Amino acid sequence: MVRVLVPLVAASVLLALAPARARGSSRPPTNAQLRAAVRRVEHSRYLWTTINICNTKRYPLTIGIRGQMPALGFAASLSMDVQALYWSNSSFVAVPKVQKLIELGRQATGLHQGGVSFRFAPGAGRLSGTITFVWKRGGKVIARATRAATRGHPNADYGSPNHYSSAQCVIS
How does the average pLDDT of the chain come out, rounded? Predict the structure, then answer.
């Protein structure tokens, strides 16, 4: 009985001394914790947008725009507003009505990906995309960041071909 009681008492003492966050406290984050988390995700190398599908045999006349966003370290609703762009004169411009909001749900930890594919008519030209990433708590936006598509994200899911990642797509 003593052998069982000593480890049980030791575990109780350690649990009492453990920080509330480590025990899964339901207390909301402080303003300082919110600011630090927002700074971290806004400048994270894990926050990106890429083109993962570009007019392939399997997906003709289609551009896939995919993004990844980190969670804040405490529960927040994550979403991505994906916008297709086309090249006009000397810059990319939003394609009217070619936009989709993706809700990723309430997340506390980890990296979360989402994406959408848009089909275009032949001759659409040079295309790209942006994603505006949004973090909300209690229905209130606490962070927003926009990223243009870049290449070099081999961990982008659902690429065609696998691991495809580009900044632009041409549909001729």
Answer: 89
